[in-house]
Amino acid sequence: MTDLTDFQRKISSALPHIQMRFQEPLSAHTSFRIGGPAEVMAFPEDAAQLGQLLEQSALLDVTAAILGAGTNILAPDAGIPGLVICLKELSQIRQLDETHIQADAGVTMTRLAVFAAGLGLSGLEFAHGIPGSVGGGVYMNAGAYGGEIKDVCNSVQVLTADGGLQTYSADEMDFSYRHSRLEEERGIVVSAVFELTAKDPEDIRSRMQELAAKRKASQPLDKPSAGSAFKRPVGGYAAALIEQAGLKGYQVGGAAVSDKHSGFVVNLGGATAQEVKDLLKQVSDRVFAQTGIRLEPEVRIW
Ligand SMILES: Cc1cc2nc3c(=O)[nH]c(=O)nc-3n(C[C@H](O)[C@H](O)[C@H](O)COP(=O)(O)OP(=O)(O)OC[C@H]3O[C@@H](n4cnc5c(N)ncnc54)[C@H](O)[C@@H]3O)c2cc1C
Fold this sequence. Notes:
The protein is of the alpha+beta class. It folds into three domains: about 5-85, Uridine Diphospho-n-acetylenolpyruvylglucosamine Reductase, domain 2 (2-Layer Sandwich), CATH 3.30.43; about 95-205, Uridine Diphospho-n-acetylenolpyruvylglucosamine Reductase, domain 3 (2-Layer Sandwich); about 220-300, Alpha-Beta Complex (Uridine Diphospho-n-acetylenolpyruvylglucosamine Reductase, domain 1), CATH 3.90.78.10. Helix content is about 30%, strand content about 25%. It has nine helices and 19 strands. The protein has helices spanning about 5-15, 45-60, 110-120, 135-140, 150, 180-185, 200-220, 240-245, 275-290; strands at about 20-25, 35-45, 65, 75, 80-85, 95, 100-105, 120, 145, 145-150, 155-160, 165-170, 190-195, 195-200, 225-230, 250, 255, 265, 300. It is globular, with a radius of gyration of 20 Å.
């Protein structure tokens, strides 16, 4: 273990039973395909291992970053010193009763929607095609085509900042547009319960196919991105404002405003996080100068 950093040596010897990778490129774990190495990336398999990782990193005075499916993150070019906890191994999904499903944080939203459809349970059609995880979706109240996590979420099991497991009702989650209380509290979603309604599975599937076709027709799904780059501003749509400012296709290095959907920033190949940040700032400034509306990034900049 000669080449290991002090932190890599200490955390791996304290928690030998937990899967870890060292100097793991974040570009391999983010849909933008951007980001330098994580000093340690850990893959807990259950809430107990997640708790142990948090406890150990606190003892070593390191703050852990939480990674779901990596589809709403701009990770830094220099990487992350310390610990990144990837939750993709928390992947159980189960039916609780006739109308309730519980999914672990690492389950993808598309898998959750397909599971619900198979049971003839409606409500998650909107989530089919959102490439993130249940944890990331709950954390930021993901939504599409008129649906949001808050419409179907019944409760959320959270590992709180003090290390305790707590269940919040949907009301207690303080959901609003692309926001939940967890953003302020640094709580980690372990699992969530969804309350759905019975419907003909064929109707559910055909709605999901309709939405998939809409996505394919309007979004640059063939290029790395993190989805909508900006939040929807009050009184307008980011994509329309960007297009009106003449910024469709606008490029900074390998980062560009998509020429298919101006609300998306895409990686044309080899884009750096700095280029994406510069592009986001220039677009926001130009739109502000023209309209007085300030666009705020939806993508989480680490
Ligand atoms: C092609 C494309 C299309 C998209 N379409 C949509 C869309 O229609 N609607 C929409 O809302 N979004 C969309 N997105 C964005 C993204 O998929 C969502 O924001 C999704 O909810 C992010 O989940 P994630 O697991 O990828 O989170 P990550 O990107 O891994 O993380 C995002 C944030 O959530 C935090 N986080 C992740 N997991 C947890 C957890 N378990 N507990 C606490 N915090 C956590 C992270 O620390 C980070 O701050 C799209 C993205 C792409 C690439």
